[in-house]
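Quick log. Single chain, no ligands specified.
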Amino acid sequence: MNLALIVIIVVAIVLAIVGGLNSALQWLLWVALIVGVIALIVFLFRVIRGGART
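-> predicted structure:
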């Protein structure tokens, strides 16, 4: 009976860690998308300003 309890606890801990990693990865994905869009906007502004000066 104790072995079954230990197995259940280990499985619960593994599932909690995987769920936490999944949540963290989704958050990091959104942050990466936002930073990428900002970088693209800055790049486009530099290209437009550079082309207008010359």
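The mean pLDDT is 86.
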